[in-house]
């Protein structure tokens, strides 16, 4: 009885804590189409300014891939009012830090400053939008940077090509079919006008959301935003085609030889609904249950108990049009990747045919509640969540309500979604193998 009372106490305490973490925000549009989201939190003297652009690798010309990621680098080169090499110096001299990242559907830039440097952050991001210099020197410099990044992360990194290989085989029509870094040959052959045109189409206020989060006075911040971003002209509306993949009805078998590895891997990838769909949330729960971390079913079975696998991992890809669930394993000893595939399929079949236990279900709920709290435990995290929920899920308030979706998912729903999407005839089976050595 004492244990029951303690458990009840901790559940109620956690629930109260989560309610107390509600994120308040205000959002509005400027006349040029820029969407603005403000979150005021005066508990610490820091502020994050962030801009997310609705452009990722899926928006590229199939013959000119890598542009979205390239711009993540190029737009730190400088502007009409910021000399080359000065961007990072301005940020650091004001006590700040910043970065950027690109994915399939969006590109995200952000800086975090002491709150008395808010205006500097807004000025920097308005400069990036209004006065970028797309010049040959910057383009040539960043081509070398991207080439080195690809060599480091993909070409010379063990298992570094698996993401690109999965996308290439999982999609045949949709522009998710190439990796985010794209083709170095495409970048090398691109002209300066190609880069200028990409900037003109996608780096416009009506294709972006600005988030300012932290120690701000909202009315003063609105005035600064109006001053810095209001004069930026609206761009042409972007026309995006809806590209629908044919369903996968037979197993896709693929093989890739990696010269950087000695241990093979099996990778099973399933195409799943876009990240805003309810079923995508269910898939995330299944992914966590089966293959995320040392407490997952597959890790405990294949690594801890049977000692068949060196590693089990999952790579859920949340994206706007389609998501993916990827589970991978590395064998140990005399075990083969085919042995591991058989064991993985047994566990997936259990999820499809039996309700997971109430105990496991509660563990899943606890995990997702922890993730929900941790994702929004910093000003930077809040800014990112606000931008992404608005742009890619069309509901900014998911920063407060997303956990309710997970709480509402039932054990029965987990079983039904697993039956619907995680079938052997609906997946890619990628054998990721060491490079064959030539016989003497």
Tell me, rounded to a whole number, the average pLDDT.
93
Helix count, per DSSP? 16
Cα distance spanning the termini? 72 Å
Low-confidence stretches: 1-20
The order of strands across the largest sheet is 1-2-6-3-5-4
Order of helices and strands: HEEEHHEEHHHHHEHEEHHEEHHHHHE
Write down the CATH class of the largest domain: Alpha Beta
Q: How many runs of DSSP E, i.e. beta strands? A: 11
Query: What is the CATH third-level topology name of the largest domain?
Result: Cytochrome Bc1 Complex, Chain A, domain 1
Summarize the structure.
This protein is α+β, with helices and mostly antiparallel strands. Helix content is 45%, strand content 18%.
Structure, described:
The longest helix has 20 residues, at 136-155. The strands form two sheets. The protein has a six-stranded mixed beta sheet, with helices on both faces. It has two domains: 25-229, Metalloenzyme, LuxS/M16 peptidase-like (Cytochrome Bc1 Complex, Chain A, domain 1, 2-Layer Sandwich); 252-434, Cytochrome Bc1 Complex, Chain A, domain 1 (2-Layer Sandwich), CATH 3.30.830.10. It has helices at 2-20, 67-74, 87-93, 118-130, 136-155, 162-170, 184-189, 192-202, 218-229, 278-291, 297-305, 337-353, 358-375, 379-393, 398-408, 411-421; strands at residues 26-29, 35-40, 46-53, 97-102, 107-114, 208-214, 252-258, 265-273, 309-314, 322-331, 427-434. A hairpin with a 4-residue loop joins β4 and β5 (107-114). The model is unreliable at 1-20 (pLDDT under 50). By secondary structure, it is α+β, with helices and mostly antiparallel strands. α4 runs parallel beside α9, α10 packs across α16 (411-421) and α13 packs antiparallel against α15.
